[in-house]
Amino acid sequence: MTASLAFVTVSYEPDRDRCALLSRSLDAFAPGVEHWIVVDRSDLQLFRSLQNNRTTLVTTEDVLPLWLRRLDIRRVGLRSNVWLQARGRPVRGWLVQQLVKLALAKELTADVLVHTDSDVVLMRPFSTSSVIDGSGRVRLCARPDAIDETLPNHVLWHRSAEKLLGIGRAQFPMPDFITSLVPWKRQNAVALLEQVERNTGRHWLRALAAAWDVSEYTLYGRFVRDVLGEGAGQYVTSSSLCHDYWTHAPLSARELETFLGGIGPEEVAVSITAKAGMRPEDYTEALERRWAAHPA
After folding, report:
1. Cα torsion for 84, 90, 92, 98, to the nearest 10°?
2. pLDDT tens, 25-42?
3. Hey, how many other C-beta atoms are within 10 angstroms of the C-beta on 50?
4. CA-CA distances (angstroms) from residue 134 to 73, 110, 138, 267, 282?
5. pLDDT per residue as tens digits for the range 127-136
6. CA distance 121 to 13
7. What's the predicted TM-score (pTM) here?
8. Candidate CATH numbers 3.90.1580.10, 3.40.50.300, 1.10.230.10, 3.90.550.10; the one for domain 5-293
């Protein structure tokens, strides 16, 4: 039986236009794959036009338990990015996005969840074979020997994963599991949450909220590699599905064309971080030209 897929995007108001561009690309290159977009309830109306027979909108509040809620200070003209627990310290919005991705593993039914950042755009036709090999194994991107003491945040994410999962301390250099288009085998993600609960003796969400320094992709990657191993039903590759631009500086027109032309043979998408200081309209025309050259 063919495995089912679903794209998952956790977004918010500042990334609405980027998410719309992603949605256009999914319509063109992955029309048969469902897309779940999760936004805060206050942003729901802004994203409503992206909903169609393939795309479903869900609110953060509906995914997370009632004891975790955003601090509402909009009445005085401010937007809070802090969430309060019934017990425990406040949770930053960045961490809440990661909690949502993990929580969706128990809410959705697709066999493979393809986590897709708002700033991702598909450039080529996407198929099941992009993420599942002929033996039914799901792709896991891991760049070997990429993390050492020169990347302190990444090191913290690995150390946090080790504590949450109850696994040994990895030595430098360590693998990097982070990119902008990340497939998860859903049953492995559910097993990850169960592992965290067994190891910490707490609800997985409370354990992660207390950990503070968490990367959902590092946590998942270490679980698959260090806990499940050969039984994970996944294969490891250093090749990403997405050609990423992470630099916090805008691309010139020439640099943009060079970047878009540099997409690798296994990459089906590109991502230009919002922190580059570029608006979607700065590169939409260039994307459309390339879409026309690679019809679905």
Report:
1. -70
2. 999 999 999 999 999 998
3. 20
4. 51, 18, 10, 18, 39
5. 999 999 999 9
6. 18
7. 0.93
8. 3.90.550.10
